[in-house]
Amino acid sequence: MANEDLQVYMSDHLAGARAGVELAEQLVRTSDDAGERQFFQELCDEIEADRQTLEGMLEGAGGHPSVIRQAGGWLSEKLIALKMRWDDPSGRGLTFFEALETLAIGVLGKRSLWRALAAVQPHVPQLQAFDLARLEARAQDQYDRIERKRIETGTRVFSEGGKAGR
Description:
Number of domains: 1
Radius of gyration: 17 Å
Distance between the termini: 46 Å
């Protein structure tokens, strides 16, 4: 695998991580429930730590965050947020469910990143200092927590006929 390809791959995921942090921050800001805010703040902190780890990996591999990719990730997150507000202006039913789903999909992508990097780790000296198995396990734990909340929310929203509160 060419180092440049690896840098592009990590830079793409770094842009996604930035969008994930922003989405988690939005969920912290918009929650009316203290326990829910704590849930999202912990996720936000973990996603940010993973983002910083990935940025360190990228820089260790000789790359730098791509301004264009970062802007694309930021714009994507804003478009997703706009779409969700359009569908559910209250932000408490479908919007909340879709935000959880978006976050879950992003975390699955991150888990796949860690797996791919673990596969090439023996061949890329710059990756050998990182505990990719631990990072993958943390991504799986994040996904499991988000997925429980997503299913709970979907059950409530869809069984109550939409526009349901959190």
